[in-house]
Amino acid sequence: MAFKLLYASSFLLLLLPIPTIAQTYPNISFGSSLSAQEDSSPWASPSGEFAFGFRKLSNDGFILAIWFDKIPEKTIVWSANGNNLAPKGSTVELNTFGQLVLNYASGEQTLISHDQSKDTGVAYAAMLDTGNFVLADQDSNNLWESFDQPTDTILPTQTLSIGSVLFAPYTATNYSKGRFQLTLESNGSVVLYTTNFPLDSTNFPYKRIEPITSNSVDADSAFQVIFNQSGSIYVTDSKGNIRTIVSDTTVSVQDFYHRATFDYDGVFRHYTYPKNNGSSVWSTLLFIPKNICWELKEETGGGACGFNSICKQDPKGPTTCECPKNYMFIDPNDERKGCKQNFLPQSCEEASPETDLFGFQAMLNTDWPNGDYEHFQPVTEEWCKQICLSDCFCAIAIYDGSRSDCWKKGIPLSNGRMDLSVGWTSLVKIRLGNSTRRPLAIPDAKTQRSSNLTLIGSVLMLIVTYLVVAIITYVVVSRSYSRKAKVSDLYPVINLKCFTYLELKLATSGFKEVLGRGAFATVYKGVLASDKGKLVAVKRLDTVVRENDWEFKAEVSAIGGTNHRNLVKLQGFCNEGQHRILVYEFMSNGSLAGFLFGGESRPSWYRRRDIALGTARGLSYLHGECSSQIIHCDIKPQNILLDDSFTARIADFGVAKLLKTDQTRTTTRFRGTKGYVAPEWYKSLPVTVKADVYSYGVLLLEIIFCRKNFEADAEDEDQMILADWAYNCYKQQKLHLLLQNDDDAIDDFKTVEKYVMISFWCIQEDPSMRPTMKIVTQMLEGIVEVSVPQNPSSLYAI
Predict the structure, then answer these.
(1) What is the pLDDT of residue 545?
(2) What is the pLDDT of residue 580?
(3) Count of domains forming the chain
(4) Residue 40: which residues within 8 A CB-CB, separation 6 or more?
(5) Burial of 202 (C-beta count, 10 Å sphere; 0-12/13-18/19+)
(6) Catalytic residue (choose from 634, 652, 692, 742)
(7) Is 70 exceeded by the pLDDT of residue 170?
């Protein structure tokens, strides 16, 4: 009854006609074009709320798109080339035939609009305030429009007809077609499907929004999904009858931007964003399905998060994917590719079942529906564990204590989910301790007694073989070290790929595009053809001298053995002949220096807070949580990189690797960058991890105030050194002088003041007065109280 009342109460509002607003749009004439450049101006709508043009994405390609242009996020609502990004220098043109054409810099050409070659009737193009880009005739009739070619988003005044498809993007920053699609079918149902990725064809329907059945359905009824100008979304038939209300809202389109987007996690969401509020974020009015982790159970396929993974519902945003204990993501940059075991699987050899080397990690409220291959009842939990241990194919045992049920599951696991409604326990089989090697099969006692002579002979043969192998190994290794060009020169590092020089030369187009330069190396952008076009940063040592050999070896050894979300990940290396090259994951949002100092306006205070905390956590890991202590020694904005989500990632271990990282201090010669180095470097005193704490203190001030630590052209001499100026303002309770035009920070002034106090503790002249990075992190998190700092007194040498 309540359902029918909802339709009745909404019916009149939904059928209100969409008013026609007389506006004069700036026409785009034949021959007009835009270029794929960082500073290229787009074609804007009259109000400036929407723009059409090129946007540079994280992987350094350009997408031809339409976006909201008056909000900081510049949210994309339509794109033309998500599957084939355009390189720099490409253009889009309205040609003399009235066609919209994308001209790639490589010479390739793609027709964006209609395919007629002559007499199209097109007179001009225009970007409308509705978010619709149109090609129109002299009478302003739309002959082609972006609204008819939707990608993942629909906007108010837009409609979807039968057969129209929305494709979810591949990831939040990759606009190629992803793993899900939404379509309006001939019976009026809106259906969400998984796809046979990477094909476009549908695989499994996981959510249907069915039409109401109170009205008869014409066999040839022309259903439409309508997103009306009041912000409501509904389905009508050919007679204009409302068949389904998808989203009914009272949020005004006059005061809020609206969009309905089929997100990369397979959820259809209706978003709103307050106009004239640059510090806000998109809010979710509705999401379908309510819990994709629960509703998506593919018959064939990995489910919402890929094979062997676990889906966790987040009502406030995209679902998150996790791996079970002792599993790891196949691709950390794409969690929906699933997880793999981070240990050697159990042996299936009868002589060595390895049952003593494996145990279980219990996970509550976790399940992988489907895929059971054996079921036992009634049994105890211990019996269930033992039957799984004795089966090398069993990866997980599910035990339901309420019914004494036991199920066995094997790899790969599908449809993983974590939900409070799951009442049983998942027992994940893991290898115990650090055991990664299988023991040799040991003969039973009877066999030993019958083959003593054979065993003695075998032992003698093994001894002789060992001596021969030892001599050969000594000769080979000696020659290898003398040549200094073998990969075996490197310290052993797990899970790193060894590239050939030719591979990396091809990946960088002959080391063409420079991302940055340092004292000992140049960093180039690369594309790995062997890894589906994955973008990487390729660091090539400039000279081949002994010091650089140490630089290279130690950087591989140092960062290759680390694993933390706030460190840049090393993907591999090349140690071939005279070539010393490191391959890192590509950081799409550049360096913290560009983020803080490269724009006209200050970046978000709340994002700066996250970056400050992330950097502190990364340093805390290096100092005390990784396998061997690492002193970075060159913490500065240029060495803090930002990934797709602006997470801080510490980079450039080129200085740290020269230190003896198994010690707590070093007496090595001066390293680092002036302005960030601790006083002990200048005094030739032993250097500890507290040197990094000092550098972090300087960096923290730069993050807080978006100002470089030293500015020679400052208006006032007292303002040249940021730490001096900040401390004077702090003592005089005038920190607001450093926060001009930073409303977000001023609104959070107590946190700003706390962060400033933490920075002063970090830059104390006496290293013993500085906190450890672990304490700094706890101060930032609010776990440890921050006391009033002493005067740092010794500020930096420039």
Answers:
(1) 43
(2) 86
(3) 5
(4) 34, 53, 54
(5) middle
(6) 634
(7) yes
479 assigned to some structural domain:
no
Q: What is the DSSP string of 57-117?
A: -TTS-EEEEEEE-SSTT--EEEES-TTSPBPTT-EEEE-TTS-EEEE-TTS-EEE-S----
The CATH number of the domain holding residue 278 is: 2.90.10.10
Is residue 350 predicted with pLDDT exceeding 70?
no
CATH of the domain at 424: 3.50.4.10
Contacts 24+ apart (CB under 8 A), 201-204: 203/298, 203/300, 203/301, 204/296, 204/298, 204/299, 204/300, 204/301
Q: What is the pLDDT of residues 243-275, one digit of tens each?
A: 888 998 888 888 999 999 999 999 999 999 999
Based on the fold, state whether residues 702 and 757 are members of the same structural domain. Answer: yes
Residues 161 and 137 in one domain: no
- b/e burial code for range 96-130 (CB count within 10 A of at least 16 → b): ebbbbbbbbeeeeebebbeeeeeebebbbbbbbbb
Phi, psi of 776 (to 5 degrees): -60, -45
Q: Which of 640, 652, 514 is nearest to 60 (CA)?
A: 514
pLDDT higher than threshold 80 for residue 722: yes
Residue 420 lies in a domain: yes
Structural domain span for residue 352: 292-435
Q: Of 149, 183, 201, which marks where a domain is finished?
A: 149
Instruction: Choose one of 556, 585, 614: the last residue of a domain.
Output: 585
- pLDDT of 750 strictly over 50: yes
Q: Is the peptide bond before 26 cis (omega within 30 degrees of 0)?
A: no
Element containing residue 168 per DSSP (H, E): strand 165-169
Return d(Cα 269, Cα 287) in angstroms, integer: 4
- Mind giving me the DSSP string for 13-71? HHTSPPPP----PPPB-TT-EEE--TT---EEPTTSSEEEEEEE-TTS-EEEEEEE-SS
Indicate whether 205 and 272 sit together in one domain: yes
Catalytic site includes residue 634: yes
Would you place residue 467 in the very low, low, confident or very high pLDDT band (cuts 50, 70, 90)? low
Q: Using the structure block, give the residue that is written with the tokens 């073998």.
A: 486
CA 135 to chain centre: 36
Q: Which of 658, 611, 664, 615 is nearest to 633 (CA)?
A: 658
- Under 8 Å CB-to-CB from 782, ≥6 apart: which residues? none
* Same-domain status, 333 and 225: no
Residues 644 and 677 in one domain: yes
Under DSSP, is residue 454 helix (H, G, I), strand (E, B) or coil? helix
- Higher-pLDDT residue of 444, 773: 773
- What rounded mean pLDDT belongs to the chain? 82
User: What global pTM score does this model have?
Assistant: 0.54
539 is in an annotated binding site: yes
Q: Do 503 and 547 belong together in one domain?
A: yes
Residues 650/656/660/665 CA torsion (nearest 10 deg): -80
Q: Are strands 76-79 and 62-68 parallel, antiparallel or unpaired?
A: antiparallel
Per-residue pLDDT averaged across 68-78, rounded?
Answer: 94
pLDDT of 599 > 60? The answer is yes
